[in-house]
Amino acid sequence: QVQLVESGGGLVQPGGSLRLSCVASGSSFSIYTMGWYRQAPGKEREPVAVIRSGGNTDYTDSVKGRFTFSRDNAKNTVYLQMNSLKPEDTAVYYCNANGRRLGLGNYWGQGTQVTVSS
């Protein structure tokens, strides 16, 4: 079982920055593929970025060059550095731990609100 707790959301002006954190409890954190997803009002949840156990990352096109996903396995923590934020980045951001390819579970955090507005 993995529990995920996100933090770092808030209100920021367009062009500003935020850093989201997600701390995982439980064992074997380093083998999970970690992801950030977001859900805007009236829209489906969508993937933002993933980072695999080896550190490789993928980003959705709309955030490439602006967001950076990193992990610190010693701290059981992942980070999403978000720069040059736009109003369309406004959403609830969810942390995900996916161990399904290893026969483990798929876990979600409770979400943290990011609002980009002047």
Helical amount: under 10%
Written as H for each helix and E for each strand, in order along the chain, the element string is: EEEEEEEEEEE
H/I helix tally: 0
Alpha carbon gap, first and last residue: 40 Å
The structural class is mainly beta
Mean pLDDT: 96
Q: What is the overall shape?
A: globular
DSSP strand tally: 11
Low-pLDDT residue spans: none
Radius of gyration: 14 Å
Main pleated-sheet profile = 7 strands, mixed
Please state roughly what percent of the residues sit in beta strands, choosing from under 5%, 5-15%, 15-25%, 25-35%, 35-45% or over 45%.
Answer: over 45%
If you had to describe this structure to a student in words, what would you say it looks like?
There is one protein chain. By secondary structure, the protein is mostly beta strands. It has strands spanning 3-7, 10-12, 18-25, 33-39, 46-51, 57-59, 67-72, 77-82, 91-98, 106-108, 112-116. Strands 2, 4, 5, 6, 9, 10 and 11 form a 7-stranded mixed beta sheet that branches. A hairpin with a 4-residue loop joins strand 7 and strand 8.
